[in-house]
Amino acid sequence: MANPIFSNLPMTIFEEMSGLARELGAVNLGQGFPDDPGPEGLRAKAAEAVLNGYNQYPPMAGLPELRQAVAAHYGRSQGLDLDAMTEVTITSGATEALAAAFLALIEPGDEVIVFQPLYDSYLPIIRLAGGVPKLVSLAPPAWRFTRERLEQAFTPKTRFVVLNNPMNPTGVVMPEEDLALLAELCVAHDVIAICDEVWEQVVFGGAKHRPLIGFPGMRGRTVKIGSAGKMFGLTGWKVGFLCAAPALTHSLARAHQFLTFTTAPNLQAAVAWGLENSHDWFRDMPRALERSRDRLADGLRREGFAVLPSEGTYFLNIDLPASGVDMADRAFCLHAVNEAGVAAIPVSALYEEDPVTSIVRLCLSKRDATLDAGIERLARARDLAVRRRAPDIAPA
Ligand code: PMP
Ligand code: GLN
Prior knowledge:
By secondary structure, the protein is an alpha/beta fold. The chain has 15 helices and 13 strands.
């Protein structure tokens, strides 16, 4: 016997593609992680904390120094006024923070608005909590909703909206007017927003990340979720932040205490140090990634690929039909990893219904040599596909 919510799921596309990349020795532009080791100062602090203390259970809600550092960071970077002790909980990654939010707040039958394409952990946990997902599909190239489409999604049963901004996999940093519209509807319908903002520090050029919690009427009805893994390019660390008004935080902490109870204290100590001492990092890291984005985009364009804009996140998308590829995204990704040695993510895997099958997501947070090899191999995959007019590979 097994719970069908989980037992009927495929393995996540990120694990599937990284598994194939490992097995085949492919260049991995699939799962989102940098291929450099991350800031040395933080890693040294974590090592020091492992050797000299911080190895027993920390307080359930997180080390006070980290909760304070998170509140101070969001004060400096986003103008928020979070109280460290009543409004910040430390979790084992944003994945746990999301699960805690869904399990703590959703009651059976509650409708939860989610935008497709979506991060893959949302729907199973919403369903486990008894929530009823209401999907709003976004489409390339702009991936925006309209007032009409959004108004249609709200019903008297709507209790939550889940927003991922900046958005994985689209690379969109949501414009202020769209956020204002979403906030207006949340207030009008008395709805709570669960905001997955793990990419908040990874924003390029002129784009600016604005937290929904800062919009009129949203301070008491928003759960804001962050991830040190994304802030510092240390994706395996799994240190997340749950921020919300005290009444919400009370419930969130009750769920967190039975999901993981705590998070590795040595890593918490290092992240606290990092937030207080990394002002240059937060300026330099997005610039370096923007350079990588441009190198990847320029290289792909030179090879004849149609590249979609990316204003943030680790991701850049290509449009297959506009790039001369006559294959659906999943078939192309399997072909590319098997025949040309490059892994990528088919965006259709992040839709539950009516998938967009023309877009492939590439990870840009890589060294130049990795990006260059990836570009060359993607071009080879495209040329092989065109030459052979390859038949579609059946989906798994
Ligand atoms: N949400 C989104 C949109 C993500 O892209 C990711 C990971 N890339 C997560 C949540 C999970 O973050 P964490 O690794 O901190 O659990
Ligand atoms: N968020 C990462 C990505 O989008 C993957 C995280 C995971 O594999 N769970 O690539």
